[in-house]
């Protein structure tokens, strides 16, 4: 095989370890122009994704390049040209800077916001037939990556992704495998990060687990309403631990940790879960979780009937518990610790059967109103 037969993506990029990447860039204080393309190329290497392609003269061919040319159309009918630092069609616009201020200062934040504004302008200047990308990446070379998203692809509002507390990734954070997976997905399948799609997928998976449990429980003669009430209490407990209403134990979520313990000793499942739900109904110190609990109001745990499960059935509950429940129920408001938690605002208005977990996504304008 000659070099002429090898396509531009045929050769895999040599990998770089997170530690080597961080060590390579933590002291890089050269200018943006000197370093940003190398930084992005090294980042691609770290993530295991292809680096940008060589640019062509015809801009329409430049789907993944550095210095992508765009044309700005002004209100007076004039035009001007700009260049996107790095562009990947249907994925992101990347704006790079080298900010010579400490990352903990207001001045640094202001500079990053100005760079975000530039990136938004570039996204809106893209040709209509290309559409606006779902992501903006704002980079302070060698120090910080900020992520903004607009999954409507209208370019109207790019918001911090996944949320304002965790959209900023510092260089040292790239040692976290989960963050690298998020970035790799942003490169390779960006719309897979759309929370509405993730929510629908996770809901289907959870519904599958719970449908299996419901089927095994209704088969032996348990009344459907008893099964529905039991599963509803399980679901609310999973939700409560995800939003912080139940404590963590040794760094693990308390209800999930309890289920894992009970899977090893299924004969303790009924007495311990009954005791926990009674403690959640009354509030105060929990002997089961060895922590103080808020009072969960609303009668959901007033008669905490528990159905005996075997190891396999408890295993299905554990699989459901490992899902992220923070997006499953939008009506719960995080209460003050001194107030009871009203489940009437959080749980479904009718008994929850596994099949009812499939929910119709809200229209885009309603999602924005809730954000």
UniProtKB/TrEMBL annotation:
Positions of region (Disordered): 333-371
InterPro entries recorded: MmeI_hel (IPR046819), MmeI_N (IPR046817)
Comp. bias intervals (Basic residues): 346-371
Domain MmeI-like N-terminal intervals: 19-218
Pfam entry (one): MmeI_hel
Ranges of residues in domain MmeI-like helicase spacer: 227-301
Protein's name in the database: Class I SAM-dependent DNA methyltransferase
């Amino acid at each position: 095989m000659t070099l002429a037969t090898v396509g531009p993506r045929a050769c895999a990029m040599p990998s770089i370890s997170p530690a080597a990447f961080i060590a390579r860039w933590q002291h890089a204080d050269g200018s943006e122009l000197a370093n940003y393309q190398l930084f992005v190329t090294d980042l691609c290497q770290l993530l295991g994704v292809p680096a940008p392609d060589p640019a062509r003269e015809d801009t329409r061919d430049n789907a993944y390049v550095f210095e992508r040319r765009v044309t700005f159309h002004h209100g007076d009918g004039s035009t001007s040209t700009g260049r996107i630092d790095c562009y990947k069609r249907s994925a992101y616009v990347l704006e790079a800077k080298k900010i010579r201020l400490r990352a903990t200062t207001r001045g640094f934040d202001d500079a990053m916001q100005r760079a975000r504004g530039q990136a938004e302008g570039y996204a809106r200047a893209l040709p209509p037939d290309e559409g606006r990308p779902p992501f903006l990446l704002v980079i302070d070379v060698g120090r910080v990556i900020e992520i903004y998203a607009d999954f409507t692809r209208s370019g109207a509002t790019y918001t911090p992704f996944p949320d304002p507390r965790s959209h900023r990734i510092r260089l040292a954070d790239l040692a976290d495998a989960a963050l690298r997976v998020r970035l790799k997905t942003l490169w390779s399948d960006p719309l897979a990060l759309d929370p509405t799609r993730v929510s629908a997928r996770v809901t289907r998976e959870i519904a599958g687990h719970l449908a299996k449990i419901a089927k095994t429980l209704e088969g032996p003669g348990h009344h459907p309403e008893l099964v529905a009430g039991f599963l509803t209490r399980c679901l609310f407990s999973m939700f409560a631990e995800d939003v912080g209403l139940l404590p963590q134990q040794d760094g693990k979520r308390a209800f999930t940790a309890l289920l894992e313990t009970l899977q090893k000793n299924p004969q303790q499942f009924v007495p311990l879960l009954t005791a926990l739900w009674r403690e959640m109904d009354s509030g105060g110190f929990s002997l089961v979780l060895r922590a103080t609990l808020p009072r969960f109001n609303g009668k959901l745990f007033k008669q905490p009937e528990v159905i005996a499960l075997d190891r396999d059935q408890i295993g299905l509950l554990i699989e459901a518990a490992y899902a992220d429940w923070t997006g499953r129920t939008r009506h719960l408001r995080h209460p003050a610790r001194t107030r009871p938690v009203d489940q009437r605002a959080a749980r479904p208005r009718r008994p929850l059967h596994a099949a009812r977990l499939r929910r119709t996504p809200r229209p885009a304008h309603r999602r924005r109103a809730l954000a």
